[in-house]
Amino acid sequence: MDHVVELITVAAHPTAVVRAATTWHDFPSLWKGMLDEVWACVHAAGISRGCRNVMLYLDDVPTVEVGVELPESCRLTGRVVASALPAGRVAMTVHRGGYAGLASAHEAVVRWCAAHGQPLAGPRWEVYGPHRDDPAEVTTEVFHLLA
């Protein structure tokens, strides 16, 4: 799939997340439990809509934040904490299709930035569109913060 990359400036978006330092090998088996923990917390706080799922990769360890965008503040408990998606200039693309193809979206952004002299700051994240049963209808926004 060809990914169209664009430069935009984004505002910080408040999130509720569980943060972890893990390995790329272990992360695939951890993220769902982390996300379920966040959803249980925000549901208990009375929020059930308007929260897109997010994954923020702060570094290459990886230190990750898995959670949801928050449309309003709420009481957070346990390991779920308030955070925010970064603000600033980003290179972004929209990935259409199954999640297995997300790596190609990130690679497209990194290649585009290298080709256009746009240094990366490190943090990158994904914002997931609404759930669709058909993987071909799934959209995920991929962002890389610029230095």
From TrEMBL:
<feature type="domain" description="AraC effector-binding">
    <location>
        <begin position="3"/>
        <end position="147"/>
    </location>
</feature>
<protein>
    <submittedName>
        <fullName>GyrI-like domain-containing protein</fullName>
    </submittedName>
</protein>
<dbReference type="InterPro" id="IPR010499">
    <property type="entry name" value="AraC_E-bd"/>
</dbReference>
<dbReference type="InterPro" id="IPR029442">
    <property type="entry name" value="GyrI-like"/>
</dbReference>
<dbReference type="InterPro" id="IPR011256">
    <property type="entry name" value="Reg_factor_effector_dom_sf"/>
</dbReference>
<dbReference type="Pfam" id="PF06445">
    <property type="entry name" value="GyrI-like"/>
</dbReference>
